[in-house]
Specification:
The structure holds 2 protein chains of 2 kinds. By secondary structure, chain A is α+β, with helices and mostly antiparallel strands. Helices cover 28% and strands 25% of the residues of chain A. In chain A, strand 4 and strand 5 form a beta hairpin. Chain A is globular. The two termini of chain A are 49 Å apart. Chain B has a 5-stranded mixed β-sheet with strand order 2-1-5-3-4, with helices on one face. Chain B starts with a strand and ends in a 5-residue tail after the last helix. The chains are: A alpha+beta, B alpha+beta.
Chain lengths: 783, 171
Amino acid sequence: MALRQTELRPMGKPVGRKEDPRLIRGKGRYVDDVMLPNMLYLCLVRSPYAHARIRRIDTSAALAAPGVKLVLTGEDLAQMNIDWMPTLAGDRQMVLARDKVLFQYQEVAAVVAETRAQAEDAAQLIEVDYEPLPVVVDPFKALEPDAPIVREDREQKSNHIWHWEAGDREETDALFREAPIVVKQQVRFPRVHPSPLEPCGCVADYDSARSKLTFYVTSQAPHVHRTVLAMVTGFPEHQIQVISPDVGGGFGNKVPVYPGYVCAIAASLKLGVPVKWIETRTENITSTHFARDFHMTAEIAAREDGKVLALRVKTIADHGAFDAAANPTKFPAGLFSIVTGSYDFKAAHVEVDGVFTNKPPGGVAYRCSFRVTEASYLIERTMDILARRLNMDPAELRLRNFIRKEQFPYRSPTGWVYDSGDYEKTLKLALERIGYEELRKEQAEKRARGELMGIGISTFTEIVGAGPAHTFDIVGIKMFDSAQIRVHPTGKVIARLGVRHQGQGHETTFAQIIAEELGLSVDDVLIEEGDTDTAPYGLGTYASRSTPTAGGAAALCARRIREKARKIASHLLEVSEDDVVWDGTAFSVKGLPGRSVTMKDVAFAAYTNVPEGIEPGLEATYYYNPPNLTFPNGAYIAVVDIDKGTGAVKVRRFLAVDDCGNVINPMIVEGQVHGGVTEGFAIAFMQDIPYDADGNCLAPNWMDYLVPTALDTPRWETDRTVTPSPHHPIGAKGVGESPNVGSPAAFVNAVVDALAPLGVEHIDMPIYPWKVWRILREHGVTE
Amino acid sequence: MKIRVKVNGRWYESDVEPRTLLAYWLREDLKLTGTHIGCDTTSCGACTVLLDGKAVKSCTVLAVQANGREVMTVEGLERNGQLHPLQSAFWECHALQCGYCTPGMLMASYALLQENPNPTEEEIREGLSGNICRCTGYMNIVKAVQTAARKMSGESQEALEEVAANGASAD
């Protein structure tokens, strides 16, 4: 692998990452590395109760403590008119609680002091007099008529937030009435947390002399943050500069605006000095937004030969105390209606009800396009239950029901138009590579000996890349994305994009796209993201949208440059524009390949030898509104062995075959798959954030909320099929979230398959060893 | 309290509060921000540095405990403008994504290879099990440590390229 990337035509090659030289030297610049003169530190005071009236807050001792410069309460913020802020889901959230707290660890006050330690010391001196209230943590109980009302600030005096449905109820019901086979399963997708290694944090720096607020924040969506902050604070947007420096992972956690950010800004505005707030891991898990927590029931109506007819889904979505899901405005349950997955259902009907409980707000799209992970898990789990009912091999059932290659573009029963795919080819490749038939033979032999081995399949379809803008917006802002390319006189390029990477390698992959389009090398192209004063407006990096949106913008922006370059080339070559051809690395004269000029020649001429009638310089901006989403897909197979003595599940093999369309950098794609499958593995086997009846968080840190280590994590196998997206400028689809979306069902299906001889049809995640152990003992299985 | 600590080959003197953690002293007093902090329970290892040659989680060591001793951070890996073989192997093997765990991973790997210059895959996974990476799924980190081990033991370029391309066997 080449670490210097001077070759032309870099598309599709495993070029080394341009971001790595600084990161391997410890020279990344993450938000906590921002240290400004006179900077103060902010620490938040949090509620120990999940639901309580605030009778009184006494800040006097804290204010008298060493180094303390300011204490903020909800009352102080109310005077600044920033005690509430909008969520990205159209709800509003308290910045600092007044009157009552709605979840444990909710933000109640903020202390600003000269050092981090002084702020933490003084925070402990703030006395809050609470009157505990009845708590509701179970979303089903929250819907009962006598449940405590979580949100007394709303007109509607109930914990029900919204009802949303998709598909055709009547047609679905009709198919169910006549279907010979109906299976039904209730499935919970646990409450999990993205937990990037770098927690959330910011430095707010208000310069009163310049009337400028510089806001450093670990953000996946800096432009959206700027706009939301302008809306919340009333501060003019052009006087806010949001800088998202190196971001230590995001996974959806760093899309929302959090109370700590608003408090740091309020403090900086009041004090006129920079104020830093960095959350602890405990604060990260207990207050910045969680993901999932979907309680789903699926029913499939099918024929006896296994052909599926209709799908019916009902879901209770636990949003905690504020509806802070990062969903496009018109989609309160996100893209959950992709739940028909890879299968050709005649009809489907999907209902989701959002519910408030006394738990932290959310849920964000954790490595997920807005609830597609929940949808994919549900359909892949339920298809396996149908296979079991029919006594049919789960691979065979899937092959019988796939949307066929020739059906694309395919309109799903809930209205999505899938762009492309070849599901049969992808599954067949996976079956062949894993040695499926041999594994089934081995399993049969082991079952005969009483050993527990399982094989789980997940053939998911993803939906990523929001826009298009006519359908999707966040807080009213249309979901396009953008690129701006400037070619310097020497043929070197700086390109800025509206997205913000957090490990995805945009500095490399977007350079590959632009270098490919302009006949340059990756070393010739510098990618810059994350500074709202320099980058064009964009919606940010999450939901696998960067390549589908900003990647498209980068390619089309480069082509816009090339069109202008062609005019300059015709001047340099002294032929008419019609006689100029572009061969991928140079412009030449039609029929005379020897007479050519490169992009570097053209760039120099754009500043030194501009033809008459042509604007000097060589730069362009492109705001790309994708015509449709893209639909990456894959076939994942897990093989597990279960220890009958302990209930421990060992993942013996896991193969991920992904079809993410055309690949920009196979090394980075493979890395994304490794990482995403690891997160899916953790969700399947290790992760949940439970609450006791009083609303106490029982997994508030990494001692109790488990993240897998190198020792826990299996080895992953990967492969690929390529079905280009027909509408994307370079045929790419996006890949980051696919492995996290597709893998949990494969793991759970494998475990349930291993336990199928005992009559087990379903186990809810996370599949802790004790759950399996208990099932084994209930069925009389011992060592 | 006054402390004197040798960091990356250079002595520093400082007056610190007794409760100051080594991680914060390195980051905020010495401005060596390569050492990261990712949790508050000594779980993640992002803050791993070497103290007298042993890997420690610097969020769980007081700065005063380092008095008179020698600390090496990620900034000390590169010598005379040459990347350490571990650094170049992490780059070549795509063993980092967001980069936040990378300094801790590099230091834990460094300590591992000091103790065991030719570890098996299982020994690498165990040796790095105090360090969490949320991005890579560890496969490429294991591959990078194997590649660095071979580089450090002076194997041929062809063998190294073979490892980088295909991974190494577990033996």
